[in-house]
Amino acid sequence: MRQTRLVIGAALLAAAAWGCTAVGERPAEPPGGRAGQQVLREDARPGRGHGGAGAGEAERGLRRRGRRWDAAVIRLSAEQEQALGVRTMAVSARPFRTTLRAMGEVTVPLPRKAIVSCAFPARIARVHASVGAWVKRGQAVLTLQSDEVGLAKAEYQKAQSLLDLARRNCEREKRLFDNGVGAEKTLLASENELKMAEANRLAAERRLRVFGMSDAEIRGLADDRSSPAELTLTAPIEGKVVESAAVLGAMVDASHQILTLVDTRVLWVDAEIYERDIAQVRLGQQATVQVPAYPDEVFEGAVVHVGDIVKPDTRTIGVRVEVSNAGQRLKPGMFASAVFRTGERPSVVALPAQVILDDEDGHLVFVRTPAGYEPRLVDLGTQDNGNREVVRGIAPGDEVVVAGHYQLKSRLHADALRQGASH
């Protein structure tokens, strides 16, 4: 019995000791807190134990340091600097325009777009303009054959003939009445017939206009009694033929859009801005546009429309920028970035955007110091004409590398890998 009590007592003491450790005390965290735990768990993965060597250990060493490059300095001889093409520039504070950037799409202004079609069944007899052709306003683009056109021309010529006859009769009856020979009743009847003939001629003329005939073509029908049942369609605007469904001999009607013309000399960029930024945009405000196809080219424009409704799903408002496209480089449908000039600050530290490198921790530049080339992480602000505001990381007077910085970054990573592999 006494032996049994001793065994039970020993078990209770062990349970109490285990409970104090598991519940009453919190095990100490590895160095670095939770980040340290994550690193330890990563190191404990199969195939990546502490016994390995080489690139895997180098990567773990970089991860533990967070790639902050705090103590990293690249030392180069004069020959190495020349071979890498390293050049620097002195940082200075200067006036800087503040901007607002928004993403959008290049679109065609609706007043500069036109459809060539016909309001009646017809057959395409001749095609005068194909896709890519630049046409002037009033230039012939299609010739159609249609029985309806022939009938409409004949009705107009008939109405014109009846009008000429009614005019001569009315003039004759008026002379007779003035000479006391004709009756007033006959004069009134001739005047009424003249008015009816004028109305019929006007109705026939309007029908020809609906078909697309010009004033000159309609006037020519009075002298040309053998006009064929053809109609030539002309360009309603000056622009480029961007779409064509015109095939010789094809039948078309009112449901067909035969040609699409676009005047691409001026385009729109429809952008979206957040509602919190709406106060920074106004009609007539100057803006610049860039597209991925031409990253180094800037297109000038101005705000021509600011939307009135906030989209509930994105909390954005539409803003339209009108852009000159004299070189025909912008294409409808392109993604674009619109930058609105919102103000100017007198003294800002800024760098050309191309000297700032992307890194895992943010944005990186190299600064020349007496000890060598020092990598520094910088915080960026707004952008202006290819320059980026630097909020933190460098100061006026620093010598920043503007050429050869990609080679320095490659060497920086190579040195870090070698150091990690040696541990």
Question: Any overview of this molecule?
Answer:
The chain is of the alpha+beta class and 423 residues long. Helix content is 32%, strand content 34%. The strands form 3 sheets. The protein has a 6-stranded antiparallel β-barrel. Strands 3-10-8-5 form a 4-stranded antiparallel beta sheet, with no helix packed on it. Helix 3 crosses helix 8 and helix 5 packs antiparallel against helix 6. It is elongated.
In a nutshell, what does this entry contain?
The chain is of the alpha+beta class and 423 residues long. It has helices spanning 2-24, 33-43, 55-65, 78-84, 147-178, 184-211, 215-221, 405-422, and strands spanning 87-90, 93-107, 113-116, 122-127, 134-135, 140-145, 230-234, 239-244, 251-252, 259-262, 266-274, 286-291, 294-306, 316-324, 335-352, 357-359, 362-369, 372-384, 387-392, 399-403.
